[in-house]
Structure formats: structure tokens, C-alpha cells
Design brief:
This protein is an all-alpha fold. It contains 5 helices and no strands. The chain has a single domain, classed as Up-down Bundle (Four Helix Bundle (Hemerythrin (Met), subunit A)).
Length: 149
Amino acid sequence: MRRVLLSALVAALPAVAMAADAEHVVEARKGFFSLLAIEFGPLAAMAKGEMPYDADAAKAHAADLVALTKYNPSDLYAPGTSADDVKGTAAKAEIWKDMDAYQSKGMAFFEAVAALEPAAGAGQKELAAAVGKVGGTCKSCHDDYRMKK
């Protein structure tokens, strides 16, 4: 009996390790998007007039966003880390069904962030236009690949 229980436990270890790894990947992915939000939030607030426009702060936040786009987030999209697989994520399984389409939306975001950087310090009007484009890429991806809360 003891041998049967030990065999069952040993057989279950890879599944337990896989689940732990999947949860770790989800937490890392959420962390990456949290960093994006921390940098984009003040830019959006300045663009909307919810906080005073500050060219230096806008340039700093935009530069941080550009730096974050240099990171290759592919490790954050390991198979088995959708909302169907792991609690605590809103990532739809559709991401993994058509990764090329998902990555295309990611590239649109990266391109919009690149255009945001020079606009950030050019004035509130220019910032607002560039923030709108970045926000549009976020919405497009959320509409297709993020579960509603």
C-alpha cells in the first residue's frame, strides 16, 4: 500500500510542478502588464487633463514604456497559462490558438509606444493624440484576448 501511494505521489509531481510553473508565468505576465500600467497611467491622465501636463515627466514615462517594449515577453505566454488553465488570469485561450494574430496586436502596441516617445515632450495636444493611439492598441487586444471582469 505504501509503495502504491509513493508511486502515485511521484507520478503526480510533474503535474504539480507544471501547475506551479504555470502560476509563476501568470504572475510574471501580470507583473509585466502592471509595469506598463504604472508608466502609461500618468501619461493618460496628462492627456485627459486629469493631471497637469509635465513635459519632463511625460518624457520619462514614455522612455520607460519604450524600455519595457524592448523586453521579449514570449516567456510570459507559455502554453497552459490561459484562464482555462490557471486561476487568476484573464488571458483567453484564443491567444494560443492564433499566436500570430496576438503578436500582431502586440507589434501594433510596440509601434504606438515608439511614436509616443517623441510626442510625450512636445505638448499636451501631441501627447493626447499619441496616448489615444496607444490606448487603442490596448483596447483592441483586450477586446479580443482578455476576459471581461
